[in-house]
Amino acid sequence: MGIEKMELVSLVGQMNELDQCLGKCCESGCFHIQPAFSSASAANGLTLLNEKNGYAPLLKTFERLAVELGIELKETDYSAYSPASPEEFSQRAREISESFEEANQKKKDALQKVAQINETVTQIHHLKGMNINFEDIFSCKYVASRVGRIPTDNLAKLDYYDENFFFVPFETQDLYCWGMYFCPEQDKALVDDLFHSMFFERVHLPNFVKGDADNAIKTLSADMTLQQQKADEAQAEINRISIRVKDEMLAAYSKLQYLYGTFELRKKVGYLSGKFYIKGFVPIKDKKRFNQLMSTLETVSAAYMPPDADANCTPPTILKNSWLTRPFGMMVEMYGLPNYGGFNPTAFVAITYTLLFGVMFGDLGQGFLVMLLGLIIGRKLNRDAGGMMVRCGLSSMVFGTIYGSVFGFEDLLDPLYEQLGISFLPLKVFSKTSFILLTAVAVGVVLIVLSMLINIYIGFKEKDYEKAIFGCNGIAGLIFYSSIAVGLVGTIMFDVKIMSPPFVICLIVIPLICIFCRVPFSLAVKYKKFRLSADEEEKMTIGGFIVENFFEMFEFVLSYISNTMSFLRVGGFVLSHAGMMLVVMTLMDGASAAAQPVILVIGNAFVMAMEGMIVAIQIIRLEFYEIFSRFNESDGVPFEPVKVQFNAQTE
Does residue 20 belong to any structural domain of this protein? Predict the structure, then answer.
């Protein structure tokens, strides 16, 4: 287990094979592309391609057509689809659009008429009291007429005006009165202004309204039915077009997505003298397969170099884990990947997380259910999450056997241990409270020490002497922390006076001095120079150095204490789990025989859901803050092989 080894690849070829080369890179699934441009390459005249992607508007066009035709966009095989250039796609989109627009225009016209007729019918319904033909009224030469509605509160006010008009009401509602007013043609403007001031709302009836109100409604209803039939026929034609072009639309859109995606990769491609230049990383295990793909291109050559050959390119990180620890890689990625060549902590996380979960959630029966649920989730939803649950469930079963707990029954395994002659098991939680809490702290001390050892290993590997030797998590910190732990245990628990003056001076005071002076000491070891600051330009005074490092060292000492005490939560959740199940057992004992199974099932389900989730979160906290923070710098770059993803909507 470690980090996958990489090689830096440089691809060079003629421009006529650029698209094919980018396509092969996507097809490989193992090429992590990097921008080909750098300060050194710029000096040689190399520039990045900055071309406008001609496939972007075509994607929008096909998306619009798909929406209008009611076609759900999804990825499909496009290998048999021949168009490849933007012009060919544009021509085909225009042909499909023209066949659709003809039918769609018919539908729009018919629906527009339906809406107009429907609005007219609604208005005419208010004029049913008028038994005169509309065309007779509107054809009058010397009399002007207006149809509409006026607020009922203003009806009485009309009597106060002596202008030459009269108003005929047809229908009165709560707020409005529908009707018509008449006036001489020469007084039309004056009367219109008067009624406008009275908030009269005129209704403009179309000239196709004939007959009286009843006859007009019948005629218009028949016409509306006819127009609706035309709209339905047009929609049926659109549906036939949709069925006919659906497969072609999906193939065209899928191919456009691919062409658009590969064209976007050109932004990272260098150009010089008619040739393209592509840089990226390939895992060594995939080198042979990638090289075979590139060999199918006539003008393209691939050069393989060490991953650190180009200072402008940062090698990506792929965690290499076994099947046992692989599910816990998601936790490492959540915190942050280590840099290339760093330490892969997945195995350490897998062991510690699994053990801590079993200790804090120890129950044979509940652990079995967690394992089964993990198997289901791993198959149906998320393989890594399910794998973690399976391993945690097994750990819970092991510690549940040690505790003698099966679905909260603490005495169920007692006869088995008696028969086997094992007197120290099962471990009764409530009778071993002090032992459990002290053991939790001891587990914390061991994990913190292991984290420091990992940090020391990484520090020496990176030749970072401050980190490996003089830091709070280096050798100085390890000696100081371990000495304090051994001294306290020997003095308090075994009444052995370990804290002698030589012990304190050599194993406590001197490590503290090393931590305090970690920067100048590490610079002296690495550069044979003594400086108070790592920054050569920073002029730090002795007083400033003492104040700054005193408070930092004080913070380090407090962190040792707080981090160690944080592991008390491990023992606390052991007692919490047993206490919650004791409540369930108490409720069950006080219930009737018929209700006891129900209480048992609901109680176990509640404890599993609530405490299982809390325990999982608390262990993540311990891993991230008490363990990872001591050695994992999480500044790695994730490995992202180039690929074209299908999106039903483009930005």
Answer: no
